[in-house]
Each structure stands twice: as C-alpha cells, then as structure tokens.
From TrEMBL:
Reactions mediated catalytically: [protein]-disulfide + 2 glutathione = [protein]-dithiol + glutathione disulfide
Name this polypeptide is given: Thioredoxin domain-containing protein 12
Domain Thioredoxin: 24-157
Molecular-function GO terms, alphabetical: protein-disulfide reductase (glutathione) activity
A Gene Ontology cellular-component term: endoplasmic reticulum lumen
Primary location class: endoplasmic reticulum
PANTHER family the record matches: ANTERIOR GRADIENT PROTEIN-RELATED, THIOREDOXIN DOMAIN-CONTAINING PROTEIN 12
Length: 173
C-alpha cells in the first residue's frame, strides 16, 4: 500500500472510533447530582430519544439544589440497591433547578419538589402513577426509597414495551 493510502485507512478508522466514542459520551452525559452513580442518567432530550428507540419507560425526578427534602432523598435513593436494579428497566432522568420543564404535565398537582413522574416510551407523562404510600395532596412527592421502588414497579408493569403497546393497540387502528 502507498504511504498515503495507509494514512487514509488509518485516518478513517480513527474517525470511526472517534464518532463511536462521541456517541457514547453524548448519551451518557447527564450527571447523577447525588441520586446514584450506579445509574445511567440521561438529559431529558436524550432520554426521550432513548425511550422511544428502546420501548423503555422514563422516570423523571424534578429537584432543586436548595431544597431540603431533595437533599434528604438523595442518599436514600442513591444507596438503594433495589432502585439501582429497577433503574435498568427505565430511562433515568433527573432535572435540577432551571432544567424543570415548563410543560404543565410535569406538575400535575403543583410545583413542589422533589417530584417523580413516569413517562411512557412515547414521552407522555402518566399522572395515574403516584406515590400510593405518600401524601394524597402531593401525589408525586417521595421521601423514602421503598416508596420510590413501589412506584417504579407500578410504572414498569403499566408502561413497559409490551404492556404499553397492548393497551394502546386501539389508538393505532
Ligand atoms: C454500586 O456499585 C458498586 C460497585 O459495583 C457496588 O459495590 C454498590 O453496592 C452499588 N450500589 C448500589 C446502591 O447498588
């Protein structure tokens, strides 16, 4: 091979490697903010794309840096093995401060924090998935890990791939 051809082959394989590594960096870019480093966090935009492509439901935590209840939830959440295992079956998103979506569907019964919402793979919020063990006036407020995993299990049953598609077959016909 000519040296210039060698160089070309080398450069194009570098380019492939580079674009692969860029891709994985882009999809794993979101920080944990104290909610657990064992979980793969996504930004809301990347998360929506991934949920749509994978058929996985999305879990979205809305929180603020200055909020005491958020600070209290973080260690309970991040130390829970059950949550980190269940998280494999979700696209996980945490939204801090100004990242809170303006869309009203993300605050079904008020703008308190932290709030946890579950979305189907198409990105629609499902307000029927609430904290059944919590305060009925603040249905999306969670203060302990067991309540979070109970919500995740309910969401997993109702919103994951097949279950979700079956209940929506009617919509598509
Ligand atoms: C996180 O991963 C580490 C290393 O695999 C493990 O020791 C730890 O128990 C995990 N934590 C949780 C909450 O799953």
């Amino acid at each position: 091979m000519q040296p210039s051809a060698m160089k070309l082959v080398f450069l194009s394989s570098l380019q492939v490697l580079f674009s692969l590594s860029c891709f994985s960096e882009v999809v794993s870019a979101a920080p944990s903010r104290g909610f657990g480093d064992n979980i793969s966090w996504r930004t809301l935009d990347d998360g929506k794309k991934e949920a749509e492509a994978s058929g996985l439901p999305m879990m979205v935590i809305v929180h603020k840096t200055w909020c005491g209840a958020c600070k209290a939830l973080k260690p309970k959440f991040s130390e829970s093995k059950e949550i980190s295992e269940l998280a494999h079956n979700f696209v996980m998103v945490n939204l801090e401060d100004e990242e809170e979506p303006k869309d009203q569907s993300f605050s079904p019964d008020g703008g308190y924090i932290p709030r946890i919402l579950f979305l189907d793979p198409s990105g629609m919020v499902h307000p029927e998935i609430t904290n059944k063990n919590g305060n009925p006036s603040y249905k999306y407020f969670y203060s302990n890990a067991d309540h979070v995993s109970a919500g995740m299990k309910e969401a997993q049953e109702k919103l994951t791939g097949d279950a979700y598609r079956k209940s929506h077959v009617g919509d598509e016909l």
